[in-house]
Task: inverse folding
């Protein structure tokens, strides 16, 4: 019997790839059967997470390319429409996310040094940062929607209410953009009909838009100059969607808001996913699952949280700070 | 007879614990973390989808027998849905998951000498994502189907009135993530779970191919995912990014789509190339020629795959400079592809070729891939492409590559590893006959389409001029021949489950690690960690008549050890 037993044990040793193979499995309950050691499992999980982050970068990458294409095609739209975004709210949100990244990094550190209470508190703070970000984002979105700064064709339709009717009047009295007549160099080609409804797009529109103080302020100034009814406390004028009365608004401004909602929306979804992940980490952390032997979920979760922050670090200047 | 049956304990001993019998019951499969079971479930799911996609292909071919309506009730709109479903099912549900997720899942960890993939739970999750994606495709059918073509080109996909476009876009999105997670799993497995001795250049070439594929899956698929989401957003709230009347750009969609979908072509073909490397070497009983070149050419193809997407868009109005660059880079893909083909041919040269069913599939692959690859050069040439663009020439070309190469490679691999997966041997006669019928049917179907396309027949058309009819009839007859071949294959494999001879551990004489464990493999793959050597050095193997398989002969092994190959 004893010889049989010995051969069995040596087979097991070979099975475990190296000397400490099975001892580790008995010692660490979290160690999965196909890994040799906690370090082996940790390294694998980390590589997996880095690959996932690569897919995230490419996932957002598609939208960043769309942004680049649209911005290179309509630079005047971007420098004009950026004025409508609230830099203060965006800036505060940037700070909130950077701070939450700090608390996340600290949580990883505390997990590695077995300070469970501090780790859980840091995770809770990170979670609060995510909540704060989403709350501010919520106010930003509702404000934009109230101002009728939305996507697609609805961007050009005044809201269907009393204020909207009032506003439609203001818009109708606003100077209509001059129709563009395309002069055709080649007389053999049939002349193209003037595109009446489209606001003029000049080659120099970039400079004009960049120079003009865009946004609602410019609408007011423009209206004043045109002798339109304007008062600082005029309720009709305070109504949103005054961008429609702005003759300096370049064509296709809706595209800025389309890509703005796509990118910040997708980022918001990632923040929500991050909150679910953080809640799970807090629950497991409070239960006492993590220690200096096993902190893989906190570590890879932290990596995910940092990439979510990093995407915002790019979104903030690209949308809010380009004027 | 009533006495205690003395043979029973022996019977139990001769049926050792394997992965199929390790645990029983529905949940033991539905919740399994065993890569072999997940691979087998993928295989069943993929083959069922292949049947459904094949039915749509036959409907398309039958409808094209005559100009105008052929099948009663199949109007032009229904026909559009048929070819769209055929394409979408075959690409997203069959070919992309077929080799990596089904065969790869089964074979990769065993070949590597690992107990499982790095993330078994994620692996099971990928399979369920596949099921959810397939379910979305069914939902889309219930909601009115979709007729966009598998390419979902805007502006048609954002304006068509068929009701199932959004569900199928979500379905493909989910299938994409299934593919991404499989890729992540395989990259980490290859990097982190190689046992001692399994160096990069000792890995079987199938693993190199799967590794290169996994890299593409991880890096290309997310771009498709975001593109499909943009189409969904465009369709639901009309944001205008792809709509020219709103300042958007439909060509941007094409760039996004092909940035994924061209690499996706290599997601399909690279694993098949890996299988062929195994098949040719094992069934010719000769050391693979140019191992490093084949291995690195997989990586080269993976890199090139990201740089050639523009060759789908030569007629889209992109700049002549870009056309020229994309054309040149597309030509250069021929180099790593040819490196592989020449190395396979050189491996066969003076080999001791066994004309087994897998070898017949490998030989079919060589012919079909060469035709498919060389006609790709016609399409990468700018001026001929303008003539051939969107004709049946393109259809024939990509069927030679995607079906004649990727799927034939997959079916060949299925025959190669069938004894390992099921523990049963199929009838070689039936298998070989089915392969030859498929080969003939395939060429009759698609070689004809090269003529059809060169004469100007556009793809995806429901109706055509009478002068094309002869070609269409020949092509349809070919598709029936091919279908009968596949039915024969199905019969051959399924009947082996019931009446097949028990498979030996190593029925073909393979040298990689999966042939060292029993057929079917035990739950933990290896009772004892196997020693890793040169998996293409077959000199120590000897045919054993008793077990009908190859065994390692100690004398031959000692002889081989005295004369190392390198």
Result:
């Amino acid at each position: 019997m004893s010889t049989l037993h010995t051969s069995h044990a040596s087979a097991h040793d070979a099975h475990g790839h190296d000397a400490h193979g099975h001892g580790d499995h008995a010692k660490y309950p979290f160690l999965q059967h196909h890994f040799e050691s906690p370090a082996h499992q940790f390294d694998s999980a980390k590589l997996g997470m880095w690959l996932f982050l690569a897919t995230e970068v490419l996932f957002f990458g598609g939208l960043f390319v769309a942004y680049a294409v649209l911005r290179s095609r309509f630079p005047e739209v971007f420098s004009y429409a950026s004025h409508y975004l609230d830099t203060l709210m965006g800036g505060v949100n940037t700070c909130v996310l950077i701070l939450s990244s700090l608390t996340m990094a600290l949580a990883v550190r505390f997990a590695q040094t077995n300070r469970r209470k501090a780790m859980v508190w840091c995770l809770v703070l990170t979670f609060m940062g995510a909540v704060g970000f989403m709350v501010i984002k919520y106010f930003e979105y509702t404000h934009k929607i109230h101002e009728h700064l939305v996507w697609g064709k609805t961007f050009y339709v005044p809201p269907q209410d009393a204020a909207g009717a009032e506003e439609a009047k203001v818009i109708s009295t606003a100077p209509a953009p001059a129709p563009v007549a395309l002069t055709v160099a080649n007389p053999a080609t049939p002349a193209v009909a003037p595109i009446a409804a489209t606001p003029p797009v000049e080659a120099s529109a970039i400079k004009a838009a960049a120079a003009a103080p865009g946004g609602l302020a410019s609408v007011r100034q423009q209206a004043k100059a045109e002798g339109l009814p304007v008062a600082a406390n005029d309720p009709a004028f305070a109504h949103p969607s005054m961008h429609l009365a702005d003759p300096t608004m370049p064509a296709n401004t809706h595209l800025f808001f389309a890509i703005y909602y796509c990118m910040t929306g997708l980022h918001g979804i990632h923040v929500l996913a991050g909150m679910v992940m953080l809640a799970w980490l807090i629950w497991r952390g409070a239960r006492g699952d993590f220690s200096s032997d096993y902190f893989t979920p906190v570590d890879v979760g932290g990596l995910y949280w940092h990439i979510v922050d990093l995407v915002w670090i790019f979104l903030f200047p690209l949308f809010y700070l380009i004027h | 007879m009533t006495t205690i049956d003395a043979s029973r304990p022996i019977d139990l001993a001769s049926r050792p614990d394997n992965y199929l019998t390790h645990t029983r019951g529905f949940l033991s499969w539905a919740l399994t973390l065993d890569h072999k079971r997940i691979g087998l479930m993928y295989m069943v799911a993929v083959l069922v989808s292949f049947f459904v996609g094949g039915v749509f292909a036959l409907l398309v071919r039958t409808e094209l027998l005559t100009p105008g309506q052929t099948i009663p009730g199949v109007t032009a709109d229904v026909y559009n849905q048929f070819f769209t479903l055929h394409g979408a099912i075959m690409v997203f549900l069959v070919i992309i998951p077929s080799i990596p997720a089904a065969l790869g899942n089964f074979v990769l960890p065993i070949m590597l000498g690992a107990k499982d993939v790095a993330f078994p739970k994620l692996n099971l999750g990928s399979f369920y994502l596949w099921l959810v994606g397939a379910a979305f495709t069914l939902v889309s059918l219930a909601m009115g189907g979709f007729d966009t073509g598998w390419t979902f080109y805007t502006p048609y996909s954002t304006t068509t009135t068929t009701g199932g476009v959004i569900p199928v876009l979500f379905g493909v999105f989910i299938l994409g993530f299934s593919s991404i997670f499989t890729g992540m799993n395989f990259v980490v497995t290859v990097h982190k779970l190689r046992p001692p001795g399994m160096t990069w250049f000792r890995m079987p070439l199938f693993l190199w191919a799967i590794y290169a594929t996994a890299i593409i899956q991880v890096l290309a698929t997310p771009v498709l995912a975001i593109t499909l989401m943009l189409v969904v957003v465009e369709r639901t709230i009309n944001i205008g990014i792809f709509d020219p009347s709103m300042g958007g750009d439909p060509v941007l969609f094409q760039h996004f789509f092909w940035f994924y979908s061209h690499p996706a072509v290599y997601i399909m073909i690279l694993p098949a190339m890996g299988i062929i490397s195994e098949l040719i070497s094992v069934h010719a009983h000769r050391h693979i020629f140019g191992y490093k070149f084949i291995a690195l050419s997989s990586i080269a193809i993976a890199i090139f795959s990201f740089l050639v997407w523009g060759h789908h868009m030569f007629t889209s109005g992109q700049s002549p400079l870009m056309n020229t660059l994309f054309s040149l880079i597309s030509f250069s893909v021929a180099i790593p592809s040819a490196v592989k083909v020449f190395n396979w041919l050189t491996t066969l040269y003076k080999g001791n070729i066994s004309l087994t069913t897998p070898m017949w599939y490998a030989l079919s692959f060589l012919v079909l891939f060469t035709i498919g690859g060389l006609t790709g050069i016609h399409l990468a040439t700018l001026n001929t492409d303008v003539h051939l663009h969107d004709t049946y020439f393109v259809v024939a070309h990509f069927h030679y590559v995607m079906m004649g190469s990727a799927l034939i490679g997959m079916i060949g691999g299925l025959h190669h590893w069938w004894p390992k997966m099921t523990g049963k041997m199929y009838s070689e006669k039936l298998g070989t006959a089915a392969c030859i019928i498929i080969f003939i049917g395939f060429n009759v179907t698609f070689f004809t389409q090269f003529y059809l396309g060169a004469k100007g027949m556009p793809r995806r058309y429901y109706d055509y001029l009478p002068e094309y009819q002869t070609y269409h009839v020949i092509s349809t007859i070919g598709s029936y021949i091919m279908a009968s071949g596949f039915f024969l294959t199905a019969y051959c494999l399924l009947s082996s489950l019931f009446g097949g001879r028990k498979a030996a551990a190593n029925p073909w004489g393979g040298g990689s690690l999966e042939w060292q464990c029993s057929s079917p493999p035990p739950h933990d793959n290896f009772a004892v960690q196997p020693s890793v050597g040169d998996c293409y050095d077959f000199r120590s193997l000897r045919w054993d008549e008793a077990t009908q398989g190859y065994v390692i002969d100690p004398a031959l092994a000692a002889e081989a050890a005295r004369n190392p190959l390198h």
